[in-house]
Design goal:
Blueprint (H helix, E strand, L loop, with lengths): L18 H13 L6 H14 L3 E5 L2 H16 L6 E4 L6 H8 L3 E4 L11 H10 L6 E5 L10 H10 L3 E5 L7 E2 L2 E2 L6 E5 L12 E5 L2 H10 L48 H11 L2 H19 L6 E2 L12 E5 L7 H10 L5 E2 L4 H4 L7 H4 L4 H9 E4 L7 H19 L1
Parallel strand pairs: 2-3, 2-4, 4-5, 5-8
Antiparallel strand pairs: 1-9, 6-7, 8-9, 10-11, 11-13, 12-13
Helix pairs in contact: 1-8, 2-8, 3-4, 3-7, 9-14
The structure holds pyridoxal-5'-phosphate (PLP).
Length: 413
């Protein structure tokens, strides 16, 4: 794809290191501690407050957060014989990898074509028909591109079938559904702070929950299953709850180096937390700038809405990007449109693909799901996104609109 080097570049994501990020990172360097410590704990506290959950556990990535909390749920609720997790076929692949790596089995139901998340109706239809209902343990919806799933309906289905709800809000930092932020309404929520997300830290993730047991277990699992993070526990009036593991040598007791579970090292670094904290201070501004961009592009591109499905606008959505779905691939196909945009310096990304039908790693599932996920298959083939980040300027937005006009006019002419 040839592109003039001097041409304007509209990236899918961007990060400008401002004075707040710089100050926080320098504080880490000066502190002498670069692995997780004060900044990480401060971020955990502030993220839990922002989302409206009691607890937060930071991890090294969103994928790590998923593996950690799934493993915690498995231990806590003894899910070995209930391996099935109902989830979205249209998502970033690591969600499905995490399910498999934590020893579960993904079961896909179709999505809503406009908000890209699993529809409660599809979940319920699936469960009604399932002959092995006792094999299901979790519903794991994904709030793709910032759009919340109908979490209240999903929760009531979960209650009916005795299932846990784990909401992947990696792409929905601060999106609100019926008064609650994504991630807060479920039994646990997961976030990724990968680049281009609304809060970006390079590589970092988090788990939020209101359940103390899920929080404690997740914290243990991300630290190789260690008993506790402190040397002498200050909780329980100075009596360490783990002294039961002690053989009487009180001076020698160090719960940081006693492990009663098999876990991972998914701890984060202070640098990531420092950058994320700086951005969290600007989150409301980030969300509203992205909303303004989506509104502007929707207005300007509405003349193409017969060919392109534009994203629904809502002031409750914290947009990850500007997603588009080609309604009439015969008029213009995704490959051609993406190529023309890229040629003009407008970066694009596919909307991940329908995992069981379009991702080679799961080709063994193709036969099972052929023809069963029409919405996810269509969006997986015809959906893509461009940037809608807070660093885009008015001239960038005008440029994007001109690029679409040029491409569409040329196609018609
Ligand atoms: C929906 C979703 N879940 C999970 C992840 C994984 O997060 P990470 O890349 O931080 O491991 C991502 C990454 O962007 C994502 O979009």
């Amino acid at each position: 794809m040839k592109r003039n080097k001097n041409m304007r570049r509209i990236s899918v994501g961007w990060l400008e290191i401002g004075p707040e990020e710089r100050k926080n990172v320098l504080e880490v360097l000066d502190s002498g501690r670069i692995t997780e410590g004060a900044k990480t704990y401060e971020f955990e506290k502030k993220w839990a407050d922002f989302i409206g959950a009691k607890y937060c556990v930071a991890t090294s990535s969103g994928t790590a957060a998923l593996i950690t909390v799934l493993t915690a749920l498995k231990y806590l609720y003894k899910l070995e014989n209930r391996p099935k997790i109902i989830t979205s076929p249209l998502t970033y692949i690591s969600v499905i990898h995490a399910i498999v790596l934590a020893g579960f089995e993904p079961v896909f139901v179709d999505i809503d074509p406009f908000t890209f998340g699993i529809s409660p109706e599809a979940v319920e239809r699936h469960l009604i028909k399932a002959k092995d209902k006792n094999k299901y343990s979790i519903i794991l919806p994904v709030d793709l591109m910032g759009f919340s799933v109908q979490i209240d309906k999903i929760k009531s289905i979960a209650k009916k079938y005795n299932l846990i709800v784990l909401d992947d809000a990696s792409e929905a930092h601060g999106s609100v559904y019926r008064g609650k932020k994504c991630g807060a309404a479920a039994d646990a929520g997961v976030f990724s702070f990968y680049i281009a997300h609304n809060i970006q830290a390079g590589e970092m993730g988090a788990i939020v929950t209101n359940h103390y047991d899920i929080y404690r277990l997740s914290k243990k699992i991300k630290t190789n299953g260690r008993l506790c993070e402190c040397r002498i526990c200050t909780r329980s009036k100075g009596i360490c709850p783990y002294l039961k593991y002690h053989d009487g040598k009180a001076d020698d007791f160090d719960p940081r180096f006693l492990h009663d579970l098999i876990g991972y090292n998914f701890k984060t670094m202070e640098f990531q937390a420092a950058i994320a904290l700086a951005q969290l201070g600007k989150i409301n501004d980030i969300i509203s700038k992205r909303q303004r961009i989506v509104k502007y592009l929707n207005e300007k591109l509405s003349k193409y809405s017969g060919i392109l499905q534009l994203p629904d606008y809502s002031s409750c959505v914290s947009y990850l990007a500007y997603p588009l779905v080609i309604r009439k691939p015969r008029v213009i196909c995704r490959k051609a449109l993406r190529m023309e945009l890229e040629k003009r310096g407008v970066e694009t990304r596919p909307l991940f693909g329908c995992v069981p039908l379009q991702q080679p790693a799961y080709s063994h599932l193709k036969k099972i799901y052929k023809g069963k996920l029409p919405n996810a298959e269509f969006v997986g083939e015809n959906g893509f996104y461009i940037g809608a980040h807070q660093y885009l300027k008015t001239e960038d937005l005008e440029y994007i609109v001109r690029a679409f006009e040029e491409i569409m006019e040329r196609k018609n002419g």
